Amino acid sequence: MDVMGDKATLFETGRFVQPSGKEATRDQSRDETADAVETGEAVEEMSLRLAAQAGDVEAVSVLGAMLLRRGDLDGAEPHLRAATAEGDRAAANNLGVLLHQRGYPDEAAGWWRVAAVAGSAAAAHALGRHRRECGDEPAAEYWLRQSAEQGHTLGAYALADLLEHRGDPGAEQWMRAAAERGHREAAYRLARSLDHPECAGSRADGDADGCEHDNGVIVRAEAEQWYRQAAARGHRRAALHLGTILERRGDLKEAGRWYLTSAKDGEARAACALGFLLRDAGDTESAAVWWLRAAQEGDGNAANALGALHAERGQTQTAERWYRAAMDAGDDNGAYNLALLCAEQGRTVQAEQWYRRAAYAGHREAANALAILLLQGGDTAGAEPWFSKAAEAGSVDAAFNLGILFAGRGEEAVALRWYERAAAAGHTEAALQVGIARLRDGDEQEAERHLRCAAGGGSAEAAYRLAAVLDARRPPQPAHELGETVHEKTECEEWYERAATQGHRRAQVRVGMLAAARGDVVEAARWYRTAAEAGSRNGAFNLGLLLAREGSEPEAAVWWTRAADAGHGRAALRLALVYARRGELAEGQRWADRAVSLGPGEVAERAARLRDALREELSA
To answer: Is the separation of the CB atoms in 579 and 587 below 8 Å?
Structure first.
């Protein structure tokens, strides 16, 4: 390319158009930059050629490097060989690069050695990498260390990689050195080793939970710093992990920005995470777009999310397709979710098939669900090993279910061990069962501890039983006249009320009794009525007593009838007395007979005497 001549001559070549007015100026501004670069390179090349022809060794070397970068190997080689022959170490290094590209690694290594011995850090790095590829790690370490100690960034990173592979603690020093010099992969790997110490020594990019250190907060802060540096330099996985840290901290807006950056660079996991962030913000449509992008890149978690989204919309066929895509991506949740979908549709055979697939792959909740399915089908022997497998893998529900299974067989000691295991992991119903067992054994202190856990977890039965334990410890309370209001409540009454508000009928009756004992008739009647309407015969009986004392015997009889029909002997006796007083002797005798059959013993005895008296009266 001839670029000699003055500016006028250059214009005459047609490369530039002489500006004429504003329009010409705008046209020139669009093309000038690219043309200037090309022209500048051409001018530089011509200058180098002239200098090389004049015997300038450095110009020969630089010209060869320029042609090498351009890909003109044939043009570059004679210049590089000529400069190398004159002792130019940069030319020797570049000649090695050229020969390596041509497929002559051993000859390339020879020239790299020449350059490295002459002090070329780049050549030492190239030679070190070559020796490592050949399996000669001692020589590789020697040359890479030479490069790194001269401040060569790539040499420091390659040395760190070699040392990390061998488990050498000196790896972090050189990884840090490379990161500080701007190597983005080094910054990312340094962050990973700080964030997850188990990742040091492995290049796997897993997502294990973070580990705590003695100075954990400081270490995690430093990890975040290096993630930021790598992410800012375009490292998409660093952007993903930085987003994860920020999301965990609650900085959702910034987390979303880094997820978006990573996702746009092709990181499927970031696209998936961005989808969940958008879903939680209520934007399911945008979430679906990113999940689709991630799923199409093979992300099983995103495919599962799409499946769940379509299942919620009632689009079961589309949901099934995405669950299968998740399975194909190696995500066991796909099989589990597909099994849940089949179970909801009543396709039990298919549900069992997919539960088994997920369970065999180690999915603990699938193993638990499979065991429940087998148990429902009467296959207790087949269910037990799956419950055990799930429980050993950490499924709290499976541990509780094993407790139920062994309790059903009468193996109380084994059942208790599984209940205790589930309770220790926070299972509310398991804690209740442990509390009941401890009460049965007479260990009131342990029983109270477990009942408090279960009651705090929302178990109405546990709240009732805890209240009963506390109630039994209370000293006798002074009697109050009906209508005399006392506002003080004990802890046991508070637990009774908690259970009562959750619909526990016995607790409702007990709260009514305590209210009556305090003289709060209105409160007592409210709880008795609530319990009675829910089917409590004791509630109905006590409500009848309260109404009778208030002078409403006809209404009381209505509730006693309900209680007696449900098998309450005292209510039947009360009805017998009511009808006897009214003179309805036959009806009174009928209810007395019923009270005799219902009991308990004292009631049956009194009812028998009343029945006999009524019979004599009727026969008189």
So the answer is: yes
* Residue given tokens 């009774």 in the structure block: 496
H helices of 505-600, where?
505-518, 521-533, 537-549, 553-565, 569-582, 585-598
Residues 360, 331 contacting (CB under 8 angstroms): no
Residues 289 and 279: their CA atoms lie apart, in Å, by 11
- DSSP letter, residue 208: P
Q: Give the E-state strand segments of 237-318 in sequence order.
A: none
- Give the Cα separation of 193 and 200 in Å (integer): 5
159: exposed, middle or buried (C-beta count within 10 Å: 0-12, 13-18, 19+)? buried
pLDDT at 38: 61
Q: What sign for the dihedral angle of Cα 74, 78, 84, 85?
A: positive
Q: What does the alpha-carbon distance between residue 303 and residue 292 come to, in Å, rounded to a whole number?
A: 7
| Amino acid, res. 353 | Q
The number of beta carbons lying within 10 Å of the beta carbon of residue 577 is 17
Q: Are 541 and 522 in contact (CB under 8 A)?
A: no
pLDDT at site 195: 85
Can you tell me the distance from the alpha carbon of 402 to that of 411, in angstroms, rounded to the nearest whole number?
A: 11
Q: Are 588 and 612 in contact (CB under 8 A)?
A: no
Q: pTM, whole model, 2 decimals?
A: 0.71
Whole-angstrom distance, CA of residue 620 vs CA of residue 614: 10
Rounded Cα gap, residues 572 and 579, in angstroms: 11
Structure tokens at 404: 């139920």
Give me the sign of the Cα torsion angle 421, 422, 424, 430: negative
Cα Dmax for the chain: 152
Return the amino acid letter for 272.
Answer: C
Consecutive 10-residue runs of the chain (620 residues): their mean pLDDT?
Answer: 28 33 46 57 84 86 91 92 91 93 94 93 95 95 96 96 93 95 96 73 41 59 94 96 95 96 96 96 96 96 96 95 95 95 94 96 96 93 95 95 94 95 96 95 94 95 95 70 56 93 96 90 94 95 93 92 95 93 90 92 92 82
